[in-house]
Amino acid sequence: MDKRRVRLARYTIAISSLRWNLVTLTCVAALLHVGHAGAARRKRPARAPHGHGKPCDTGSTTRAPRSCPRGTRGSAAEHLNVRRGDTLEAILAERGIGTAEARPWLAAAARVYDLRRIRPRRGVNLTFDRATHALEAVRYQIDGRTLLVLEAQEDGTIAARRELLPYFVEVRGVAGRIERGLREDAVEFGMPARVVSDLADIFGWDVDVAGDLRPGDEFRVVYEDIWQTGGTRPEPGNVLGAQIVSRGRTTTAIFFEDADGNGGYYRPSGDALSRTFLRYPLEFTEITSDFSLLRLHPILHIFRPHRGVDFAAPRGTPVRAVADGTVSYAGRLKELGRCVRIDHAGALTSSYGHLSGVAPGVQAGAAVKRGQLIGYVGATGLATGPHLHYALDRDGEYVDPLALSGAIEQPVPASARRAFERVQAEMTRELASLPEMAHPLTVTLSHRGPGPE
Questions:
Q1: Of 277, 218, 226, 221, whose CA–CA distance to 254 is shortest?
Q2: Which domains does the chain have, with CATH numbers?
Q3: What average pLDDT does the structure give for the chain?
Q4: Mean pLDDT (whole number) for 410-421
Q5: Which residues of 160-169 are buried (b: 16+ CB within 10 A; e: fewer)?
């Protein structure tokens, strides 16, 4: 392949059934105490777009305690799959929707659908206002043909109805070689920026896709494109499979979801690729000030330790917990401004500073899950501009958060091994067959999403 230019190949794979699925800035960290708490397993949800479909009944409305203000930056959507034991109330709570705010949404939903029937592996789509973070809409995949749609109205009510599914899904593949960097090369040739961000999470502790890839390294990715009927452009869903060849070493990730809706990324051997800690507390990352024992502080103009990592991002960018744990502090904390601290297993504590705000329900004593929304990027405290200061300490001693990896999660369980082998074999074959030249190719994947009730 010509090393002077990345050559990518994209192709479309038809699916016969529907599947849902960060300028330099500075800051200073305060030395804090540490505690610990237990952690549990949690998989990262995938996302998909929102849209309007054809209504199939008249539905109902329920008045919210206050109207939802509209911002000027548009909407952002998050898609996830239901797991066994999930409730709509719990799903909303994990994304910063407090009990009082959630109550009218739940009441409206109950008028047109029995929420006790929410099932594993079904898709839930949440739409938020980018500026105000207010919840705008909820869509739940009732079955292979129907959606439960909840939408905030201008008068403060919540409208609920059923709609016919307005989506169809393509699976797309991209293959190429690195020239400048994965983000630059892949985005230039059509891979969505959100997919690149997903790759940073998937490969985070094995391959630093933001800084370690070199010219000549290879990548192959298979991901979902979700189209709204009548739409002009798709939104990315799950990354179904990915492979990176760096300095002669191949790392492959296969997405697999069991019957209970627990999804994760695994090596072809069935061993988990994901760990108990996310490497990055933001989805789209650019490190602007690395961990250092001595750094010239641009505001104080003195040399002092910079115990943590800064991530530049627009004000209001969602910040997520890097691991399961218990909130030990949420509020203003000296030079860190608004700050959240979370105690994790192994006497580890994570800190998130300079926040513009803290998510509802995130308070001392609250349990949080890996990937859960805990706050928003800001510039409170001693900061020159909007960014996140992220730090880890163990028993009061700070450690480099990008060098400390969490424990590897459990492999594919024996009861799901046969199903995993089928998915793994097909995806490994598809990754290997991605052409390096632009050449449309249509293939039907044999494994299916959830069927009708």
A1: 221
A2: 9-21+168-273+415-433 (3.10.450.350), 60-165 (3.10.450.350), 287-399 (2.70.70.10)
A3: 77
A4: 93
A5: bbbbebbbeb
